[in-house]
Amino acid sequence: MKRIQLISLVVLSLLIVSCGGDKKKEEEKESVKIGTKKETKKADSNSVTVALSGNDLMQFDKKEIKVKAGQKVTLNFRHTGKMDIKVMGHNFVLLKPGVDLNAFGAEAANAGEPKDWIPNDGADVIAHTKMVGGGQSTSVTFDAPEAGTYDYICSFPGHVGLMRGKFIVE
């Protein structure tokens, strides 16, 4: 019995020592010289990065994107699904005002894969990404157009009906 008590006492002592001990917490201190200002980086208000994704259910994760007129926009587009580009490819296509979405979608289907599903050499397009398959990403950088509301779509055949959103320029 004394042996069990002795072992218990040793184990308890080891637990107490390992949990706390005399370790001093080291604090990180920022050294500042008197008479100097701390530098802070300002975000460039003339540029913006936007993330957008599409999935195997033919859905964009955003139905609306807002930017300011004249901003340099970098749009990072990611296909979060798993399907191959030939079966479920996606892209981001920002259209000029007044473009009929369904007519553009039909023309894109006729343009085909060699034109990356962009008809008329992009005459109705402000900016677009390349087509990507499941797990792939791409990006495009462009200047935001003048204030207004623009449509964006995926131009893969049959996707324009579900994969669309509004690109709002303030």
Properties at a glance:
alpha/beta; about 170 residues; five-stranded mixed beta sheet; single chain; three-stranded mixed beta sheet; Immunoglobulin-like; 8 strands
Structure description:
This protein is of the alpha/beta class and 170 residues long. It has one domain (47-169): Cupredoxins -  blue copper proteins (Immunoglobulin-like, Sandwich), CATH 2.60.40.420. Helices cover 19% and strands 27% of the residues. The protein has three helices and eight strands; from the N terminus they run H-E-E-E-H-E-H-E-E-E-E. It has a five-stranded mixed sheet, with no helix packed on it. It starts with a helix and ends with a strand. Residues 21-30 and 36-42 have low confidence and may be disordered.
Architecture (CATH level 2) name = Sandwich
Task: Report the biggest beta sheet as strand number plus sense, adding barrel if it closes.
Answer: 5 strands, mixed
**CATH topology, what is it called?**
Immunoglobulin-like
Strand content: 25-35%
Which regions contain 5 or more consecutive residues with pLDDT less than 50? 21-30, 36-42
Please state the CA-atom Rg, rounded to the nearest Å.
28 Å
Which CATH class applies here? Mainly Beta
Helix/strand-derived category reads: alpha/beta
H/E element sequence: HEEEHEHEEEE
DSSP helical segment count: 3
Envelope shape: extended
Within CATH, the superfamily carries the name: Cupredoxins -  blue copper proteins
Overall mean confidence score, pLDDT? 85
Cα distance, first to last residue? 81 Å
Strand tally is 8
* Assembly level: single chain
Number of domains: 1
